[in-house]
Here is the input.
Amino acid sequence: MWATVFSNFFSLESLIALVVGVVGGMVIGALPGLNATMAISLLIPITYTMSPYAAFTMMMAVYTSAFYGGSLTAILIHTPGTPSSAATAGDGYALTQQGRGLEAMGMSTVASMIGGALSGIALLTLAPLLGKVTLLFSSPEYFLIVILGLSIIGGLGGGSAVKGYLMGVFGLLLGTIGTDIITGQLRFTFGYMGLYSGIPTVPALIGLFSISQAMVLCEQHLAFKRGEHRTVDESALHGKFLPTAKEMVQHLPNFIRSGIIGIVVGILPGAGGDIGAWFAYSQAKKASKHPEEFGKGSVEAICASETANNAVTGGSIIPLITLGIPGSTVAAVLLGALIMHGLTPGQSMFTKNVTTTYTIIIGFIAANILMGLIGMVICRQVIKITKVSDAVLVPVIVVLSTIGSYAINNRISDVYMMLVFGLIGYLCKKVNLPTAPIILGMLLEATGESGFKNAILMAKNTPVMLYYLKRPASLVLLILIVLTVVVPAIQSVIRMVKSRKSNV
Amino acid sequence: MKKKVWSQDIAVALLLLAVSAFLMVNALTKQSAEARMFPMLILVVFMILAVAMLVNGIRDSKAASEGKDVQIKNMKWEEVKYPLLVFVFIVIYVVAVDLIGFIIPSLLFTAGLMWFNYARNKVALILVPCGLVGFLYVLFTFILKTKMP
Here is the structure.
């Protein structure tokens, strides 16, 4: 098996995908307003004709490198390229103002590389073990997995869990559009032939994440008119870059602690790179001999947040490939890509598709190491790319989205579908409705519906709920669902009561 | 007298309720009992959540009107008018791609939208559209060997 894995990994296609993914991810991450979710949704059609391992090597490389790229702008212009770099921005920019911007970038490069590589090793060792859990699951459990996935990602609803769940259910509803597989009847197609085979996922995904983001960037129209552009203070780019061996030894506990925090936060569905980074930041502050420096320009702080946010990437892939539960928006898009390439999350990733899975994991570890090495060479050039105006980026995103939506099925109707979802995505952003649960609902609807119908058949004369309660694996999943929904609700009620008391 | 504040969530929830009611009627009249079983289940949950959103919206509006510490951030026309105008440009661009193919509309759209967004550098106005379309042509036609619109 490993001979095939390494032969796949060292193929020209994989190596090119790796380098392009790393450099592309760094550039996209460094551009405020662009993010890994958008980049990966645009990459799905481009990688469609590639082998699955090369395609995923590229997408995973973009995922981890975008987190690193985001830290560069956080440090130099106090604008996190991605939300996960927000914890880096305060200390990184303070160091830049002290003329130590290059030192901060050096630490960010090393920390991102170590965090990402550690999470890759966790992916390599933990994922096969967790994959075996899915052997306990049958159709009824897959329905519960869908509910669990939606309740987890619904909780990411940006403040309102109700809105998150609402959008998840909306996604399920969109997933029912088309021909019903069992009865052959048309559902909610309203006579439009383009909907007979359901809503195409990739154009919907591109619309929700890319077109809507292009529209968000256009909100700066008046700033464009005033000629306001991002500027980079290149005078901060001098002096020491990489930490010395002695400093590396001093930071070793910080690297390990933050790496573990990042991996665990990544595995816990619902928490992304930003939570991992802030958590590691607070723990590093507690453990530091100089906690007073945190927030005023601490290299330790950058070490913690950057190790953790890159460690989250590998961690978040573990529940995705083992259970099919994406713990973040990027992972939800990657789930779409897995399905597109004919890969089913679960035990089959470690049996039928084992060589592809391990090639992807080895590619991910290599991507993190390569990201560090390339970052050491070109991070000063990457930062100059951030000067490119959003006025230029907007039409580029739209044109890429158009060709990407068309390329999957060579159908112009898919491009019109992308437009519809672009508008839905933008309006959702303006009314604070999260879009990631919509895609997840659409992707999981077929699994959920067949699981639900099979559960009814398997229950025979027993009431379905009682049948579920009799199955140990179902019972565990039901408890997890209840905890996912109820615990945040209780926390929110406690917060509300506390705030009322403090107001009184 | 305190000013009455309305949360946009109320309007959104009412819209979603209306859509779900319409779909429910459609499912009941056009689909067999077996085909509509799962969509109906979803629609019921969707309506319950939309009602919860409506209740939250009304509660927040009431609290904000009474001057309590509740932040209501509604969409503003000033903020969305340019993005919506750009969306109209995108629709026109896609229709043009449908009618006359990818290359010429893409060149014109890229340069046009850059101009609209006050990118006035003449070299960029020529190089960006040509570079982008040229790159995509080579990528899709020769490397990925797929069709372009």
Q: What stands out?
A: The helical segments of chain B are 8-30, 33-65, 77-100, 103-116, 122-143. Chain B has two domains: 8-65, 77-143. The CA atoms of residues 1 and 66 of chain B lie 10 Å apart.
